[in-house]
Amino acid sequence: MNKFRGLGVAMVTPFDIQGNIDFNALDKLTEFLISGGVDYLVVQGTTGESPTLNQEEKQATLNKVAEVNKGRLPIVFGIGGNNTQAIINDLKSYDLSKVDAILSASPYYNKPTQDGIIAHYSAIAKSTDKDIILYNVPGRTASNISADTTLTLAENHKNIIAVKEASGDMEQIMEIIQHKPEGFLVISGDDALTMPFIAAGGDGVISVVGNAFPHVFKAMVAAGLNNEIPTSRKHHYTVLPIISSLFAEGNPGGIKESLADLGIMENHMRLPLVNVSAELKNKIIALGRNINKAFPY
């Protein structure tokens, strides 16, 4: 599973002022990420505003990224939810021929027990031959996938090949790293924790910040994975000042401001999300330009 070791980017979905998908901007973003050295592309995660896109639109964004990518990088596609059977149905109805793995967040809102989470992912794993990356993000789902649950799923299903861990609980993360089966990947879901995450034995990150700063984030991740910790730390502190600002008023409003400043896309979102405040926008742009001066393309 080394193709998912390194820097994955949870791609935003560009929209025009009418709220339609901007496929020209999506083309530019895909090329920008590939030229920036990312290791794989993640389409229609939460950062892609997936709850606001219908199935036809999600398939269209996947098709566009695959068309531009031309097989150069692995592609991960987000299919999650809190209705297990609906996810199984989606796995059968989407054209996943260009997809290397599925990223699936733990069920949100209905707050299943750990037994329920195991049953949920087991049903999904048995319904597809695609590789599956678990996604633990308690801040959004209101329930945590425990270390024991992650390890149980990893041991019992060959096509559950990784977890994206965004719990922020380093003790839990290290327990998974220490006891995981051989070949199972533990991937950071927190940009700010990626450097220490890798130093603890993690396998990389699925990043939001990497949308606009793939060059410096790739350098940080690659150095960490090569045990060049001082170099990784240097790059970490180059990008760290902007991270909290990018998430200060929600995601992906902040990172879309950085991408707009780079000329890759306009910053439009679909309700209920709205653009960040003018004050925060100016701060994000200034911080981003400082990063690109310190670490130019």
Q: Could you explain the architecture of this structure?
A:
With 297 residues, this protein is of the alpha/beta class. The protein has helices at residues 23-35, 55-69, 84-93, 114-127, 138-141, 147-156, 170-179, 194-199, 214-225, 229-246, 253-261, 278-294, and strands at residues 6-10, 40-43, 75-78, 101-105, 131-136, 160-165, 185-188, 204-207. The protein has a single domain (2-215), classed as Aldolase class I (TIM Barrel, Alpha-Beta Barrel), CATH 3.20.20.70. It contains 12 helices and 8 strands. The chain has an 8-stranded parallel β-sheet. Strand 2 (40-43), helix 2 and strand 3 (75-78) form a beta-alpha-beta unit. The mean pLDDT is 97.
Describe the secondary-structure layout.
Elements: E1 6-10, H1 23-35, E2 40-43, H2 55-69, E3 75-78, H3 84-93, E4 101-105, H4 114-127, E5 131-136, H5 138-141, H6 147-156, E6 160-165, H7 170-179, E7 185-188, H8 194-199, E8 204-207, H9 214-225, H10 229-246, H11 253-261, H12 278-294
Helix pairs in contact: 1-2, 3-4, 4-6, 6-7, 9-10, 10-12, 11-12
Please identify which CATH superfamily we are dealing with: Aldolase class I
How many E strands? Answer: 8
Radius of gyration: 18 Å
The spatial strand order of the largest sheet comes to 7-6-5-4-3-2-1-8
Q: What proportion strand?
A: 5-15%
How would you characterize the largest beta sheet?
8 strands, parallel
| Structural domain tally | 1
Order of helices and strands: EHEHEHEHEHHEHEHEHHHH
Discrete helix count: 12
CATH architecture: Alpha-Beta Barrel
End-to-end distance:
29 Å
